[in-house]
Write a structure and sequence with these properties.
alpha/beta; two-stranded antiparallel ribbon
């Protein structure tokens, strides 16, 4: 799966961490049950961003989504017919979970389909049991009728802010999506179209990010470099730029007294570089 990290970034999820191995384990698993990815982490809605970006990066033609915290979820493409009893009485509307799972099963009969079930902690526990039965048996029951899922075509993504039901966890492959990237990347001046004269600035930025305990992504680093070229002239300016550009930096960390020296070192290196030559960034 060459370029998965780049594909994810194109669809709104950027990270220094590479999820190619985990996704390959999921996709290449022997098809005994529905292939299910349990997306965990401390990143709140970043997990949702990962799930939706991955569904698009895999180029699956059908992508369905249900958030259990939504009061009025979007209507599905497939509308199940209303049922009537022998007296002509109409049953209540189909539950959103039944609608979206039934549609996913129907779509998977012909083409690859991803179903994302988000915020599962808000669902009734009985629905967790039904989802496990879907994974194990590859069909979904709605009012006595069965909708069969093609296990070769249907992928299931589960997102919850609390631990999954044990049986669901045992039938899923887990992936961790952190609030910040855990994989450090050493950025070098040539990566951004700069020569060796910019190395002191890159060294100062690396020391600053170590002090912050944060690892910026490539696009975040490029934006900060641009701000240093065009706007940042003081340590306070740099604090504002860092908070505005880097998702994983907490506001409180930027106010720590021990950060004064690393901030000043970046300002000094940037001003020296600006005086010696004009910075013109290339790339992202």
């Amino acid at each position: 799966m060459t370029g998965l990290r780049e594909k994810l970034a194109l669809h709104g999820f950027e990270s220094n961490d590479d999820y190619e191995f985990q996704v390959r384990c999921l996709l290449d698993s022997p098809i005994r049950t529905l292939r299910t990815l349990a997306i965990e982490g401390d990143s709140e809605r970043r997990k949702t961003a990962f799930a939706t970006a991955l569904a698009r990066a895999l180029d699956f033609p059908h992508r369905l989504y249900l958030d259990f915290t939504e009061a009025h979820p979007a209507p599905p493409d497939l509308i199940l017919p209303l049922a009537e009893d022998e007296l002509g009485r109409t049953e209540p509307p189909i539950d959103p979970l039944d609608q979206v799972v039934s549609e996913a099963c129907a779509q998977s009969e012909g083409e690859p389909t991803v179903l994302i079930l988000d915020q599962l902690q808000a669902a009734d526990f009985r629905e967790h049991i039904r989802i496990h039965r879907l994974i194990a048996d590859c069909f979904w029951e709605v009012r006595g009728g069965r909708y069969y899922a093609n296990p070769r075509h249907l992928l299931l993504f589960l997102i919850s802010e609390s631990p999954l039901y044990h049986a669901l966890q045992k039938t899923s492959f887990r992936v961790w999506i952190g609030r910040v990237s855990e994989h450090p990347i050493e950025f070098l001046p040539p990566d951004f179209g700069l020569d060796a004269a910019a190395q002191p600035l890159f060294d100062a930025l690396a020391a600053l990010f170590r002090a912050l305990g944060s690892v910026p992504t490539r696009s975040e680093f490029a934006h900060i470099l641009t701000d240093l070229q065009l706007h940042v002239r003081t340590a306070e300016h740099l604090r504002l730029s860092l908070y505005g550009r880097a998702e994983g930096i907490a506001r409180e960390a930027l106010a720590a007294p021990g950060l004064t020296a690393p901030l000043d070192a970046v300002i000094e290196a940037a001003q020296t570089l600006l005086v010696s030559e004009h910075i013109e960034l290339r790339g992202d």
